[in-house]
Amino acid sequence: MKQIKIFSPATVANVSCGFDCLGFAVNNLGDTMTFTKTSNKGVKITGIKGANLPYDSEKNVASAVTLLMLEKHPVDFGIDISIEKGYAPGSGLGSSAASAAGAAFAINELLNRPFTQLELTKFAMYGEKIACGSAIADNVAAAIYGGFILVQQYEPLSIVKIPVPKELMLVAIHPQVKVRTKDAREVLPEKVLLTDAVTQWANVGGLISGLYSENYEVIANSLKDIIVEPVRKHLIPHFDLVKEVAINSGALSAGISGSGPTIFALCKGEEIAKNVYDAIENSYKDKGIDFTMVYSKINTEGVKILEQN
Amino acid sequence: MKQIKIFSPATVANVSCGFDCLGFAVNNLGDTMTFTKTSNKGVKITGIKGANLPYDSEKNVASAVTLLMLEKHPVDFGIDISIEKGYAPGSGLGSSAASAAGAAFAINELLNRPFTQLELTKFAMYGEKIACGSAIADNVAAAIYGGFILVQQYEPLSIVKIPVPKELMLVAIHPQVKVRTKDAREVLPEKVLLTDAVTQWANVGGLISGLYSENYEVIANSLKDIIVEPVRKHLIPHFDLVKEVAINSGALSAGISGSGPTIFALCKGEEIAKNVYDAIENSYKDKGIDFTMVYSKINTEGVKILEQN
Q1: pLDDT tens per residue, range A115-174
Q2: Are residues A186 and A264 in the same domain?
Q3: How far is B110 from chain A (nearest CA, A)?
């Protein structure tokens, strides 16, 4: 193989009660990336469309991940990388994770698959570290594995793939405001009430059970975050309104995607998802804030090959 | 039907990371209870074997639950109740819950099943309130539903039944020491670190996933309690030793049953469970503390009818 073109999906992390451990991948939104073997050694970013990202190989997430992989698996060729960002960085939909996971997956293909999915996740986590300072796994694992993933533990890393109920749909709105990672972190409490923690982990248990059993009522009951959402929602204009509108038009629930500002809603079936989409759009259009929206099935396959030759 | 004799299982609550929300029922340990219709109205405890429990109908858990049910569903007959406790109260294996759940189930049968399992759980929770001051659901729900149950939320009560992996076995040791509920509560921290809470709920997610997917490795990885066990284990003599011995002889993990003093270990398969049983027994027999042990499959059917006529 000389060249591979892949699609790497956007991802929703911090799925309500599953703060810092539960994520899922999105079908209709992501990065398209092309990786080409070259006779000159070295890793080069040859083009970036759709976002203002670094060309420096050490600083660009995709090339940084590639360099790390080639350290572990040296080769006698170079690699050119071109990236088409399908959505804006800073949305809370795992933009850096899509690039990092896409690079890890594609390089593994170019090298004839020396690495496992778990190893690819670890390489991609290095990309997250470059991008945002900490090697978080939930977005990159969701992009690599597809579907819902649980980061069950970090040391050693254990990723558990959770089934996706067939009719589950995502609606998301990205208000064009900036939520600084620093602000999103600073509002987090250092400690929480044990009783609140119990409520939250009972909901995590319920959510995982609902996903396995395709019990949408249990999913809806469990999609709650009583710990992080209450302190972060103020960073996102009209969060409460969007959540209320989503639930009133039939969504199972809604929450903050990653650390925002994107708000996601999960729905049972296309018809309800369309209603929720329209209702959220209507509720937001007079707010004086630009926004984009997405409507999508849950991506179950993760990063995928578009072309190879 | 004039008379019904039932078996109501012992239960393990606070299953490691699932503190205050996850429980399961035990096959080989529980109460045998007989409920007989009488022509004199009123509810009477006619016999109690195996434990020193109140005969006062308002104070005995089984009759108190019966009285509450008859308030909601008046009848023109009375009920005599006799109880054979199969194991000691105060063990941490849901002794009061077994009596409460047994009564709720049996009375529902005598009344021709007017109530749902969820309603029976609520009646039995009243028994828990009588016995220990708070209407907790995890033991009684496990006894009524059988298998693993998750108390997903209290308001309104939502009980989720979780599948039981076929080879899962329980080994438990009950050291004959008293852990006062008051002491077990007082050591609980009011607040916990958010990072610890995240670790705990990722384990809850992993445990539920492992139970659905029969993935014993994920179950073993997730059966951890970094919040409650560290502060409660000092109330149970040689807890660390028993846990270490259990894991070293092949148990998936071990933890505190309820608020103790019983220590439970979960194992994959009978052979390992027997090894774990022997190893725990050997480790404890020179400690100068009397103890009983149990070895059992997980009970998947809940309270069951032994005889009716």
Answers
A1: 999 999 999 999 999 998 889 999 999 999 999 999 999 999 999 999 999 999 999 999
A2: yes
A3: 31
- One domain for residues B128 and B179: no
**Residues of A at the annotated binding site for ATP?**
88-98
pLDDT digits 0-9 by tens, A22-32: 999 999 899 99
Hey, are the CB atoms on A197 and B192 less than 8 Å from each other? yes
Residues A17 and A83 in one domain: yes
For B82, phi then psi, to 5°, come to -125, 140
Are A126 and A174 within one domain?
no
Structure-token match 């009848």, residue found: B75
B152 vs A153, A213, A221: nearest CB:
A221
Specify whether B151 is located in the same domain as B181: no
pLDDT at B180: 83
| Chain B environment of A160 (Cβ under 8 Å) | 205-206, 209-210, 215, 218
Between chains, do B200 and A202 touch, taking CB under 8 Å as contact?
Answer: no
Q: Is B181 a catalytic residue?
A: yes
Under an 8 A CB cutoff, do B160 and A208 touch? no
Q: What is the CATH number of the domain that holds B209?
A: 3.30.70.890
Count Cβ atoms below 10 Å from residue B44 Cβ, excluding itself: 17
Q: Give me the domain span that covers residue A252.
A: 168-298
On chain A, the residues whose CB falls within 8 A of the CB of B137 are none
Exactly one of B181, B199, B292, B300 is catalytic; name it.
B181
pLDDT digits (tens, 9 = 90+) for B225-258: 999 999 999 999 999 999 999 999 999 999 999 9
- Rounded to the nearest angstrom, the gap between the alpha carbon of residue A83 and the centroid of all alpha carbons in its chain is 17
Count the Cβ atoms, other than its own, within 10 Å of residue B48: 18
Pair B38, B17 in one domain: yes
How many CA atoms does the CB half-sphere of A294 hold within 13 Å? Answer: 27
Instruction: Give chain B's domain count.
Output: 2
* CA within 13 Å, CB half, A272: 20
pLDDT of residue A280: 98
Structure tokens at B20: 């205050």
The Cα–Cα gap between A259 and B292 comes to 51
Say whether A152 and B205 touch across the interface (CB within 8 A): yes
Cis peptide before B237 (omega within 30 of 0): no
Residues of A in contact with B158 (CB under 8 A): 206, 218, 221
For B53-57, the CB contacts below 8 A with 24+ separation are B53/B83, B53/B85, B53/B89, B53/B99
Check: CB of residue A223 under 8 Å from CB of residue A230.
no
Q: State residue B153's pLDDT score.
A: 97
Q: Examine the residue annotation and report whether B71 is marked as an active-site residue of this protein.
A: no
Is the separation of the CB atoms in A19 and B198 below 8 Å?
A: yes
Which residues of chain A neighbour B199 with C-beta distances below 8 Å? 153
Indicate whether B92 and B198 sit together in one domain.
no
| Partner-chain contact A152 B194, CB within 8 Å | no
Give Cα A240 distance to the centre of its chain: 22
Assess whether A27 and A100 both reside in one domain.
yes
The CATH code of the domain that includes B39 is 3.30.230.10
Distance from CA of A236 to the nearest CA of B (A): 22
CA–CA distance, A151 with A13 (Å, rounded to integer) = 11
Of residues B230, B273, B278, the one with CA closest to residue B251 = B273
